[in-house]
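So, can you check this record?

>
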Amino acid sequence: MLYCSHNSPAIIAGGNFHYSVILMTKKQSTIKPLLIRLRACREAISEHGNQTIYKAWMSCNRGDWMLWLAGKLDINRKLLVRAACECVKPVLKYVAKEEQRPRIAVETALKWCDGKCSIDEVKAAADSAIDAAYAAYTAAAANAAAYDTATVAYAAAAAAAAAYATAAVAVDAATYSADAATTAAYTAAANAAEAAADDFDYDTAYAIYATYSAADDVYCAADTAKDKSLEQSAKIVRKTIQYSIIKEATHGILS
């Protein structure tokens, strides 16, 4: 007699012999129920909903989505803050040289992760980064490059604020970092046009400005920069928050 079940091995009994055949039929759960329960965006559910948690975590190319999930799963806060800070580091290069507050905010938050400073120091550094962002946005009316400084400052402030505010704030670290990469790419196109005009190369300037005004190529470059930044953030988050941490956090939820 042969008995088969999705939850147990097939047992073949005959004469004095008993054979056990292990059937690998148990299907791994997808992440979709969890994403729906956590109210993830439709885009994330559409892209990763039919994947296992492992596949989703290892293939996701959006650092902001990954930080969101890690925050929702309530993983160790210092680990989340560290990941957020690491996402901001690559865009600190877009900050004006004389402005140090965004860098200090990131460094202070990382020190807190290592137990080398107090949460009050982190709050003070985050507040200073916000002040830097406001100042940069005010200056942006006369200097487009100031937008880069302002956006990175907000990213740094968000990374630091994740240490004492809601975990969801960590998402802004990756989001604003990506925005900084986008504005930097856009600003570079504008500067190229201005440089051509300053050199009295009117033909080149006109061509660049025409493209800049039409925005097709420039927007494409900006979008590419944003995608690359989010992808870079995803790699950083994966390196900082290993899958084993996520697996442990979801233990029992996806069974």
Remarks:
- Confidence is low (pLDDT under 50) at residues 1-26.
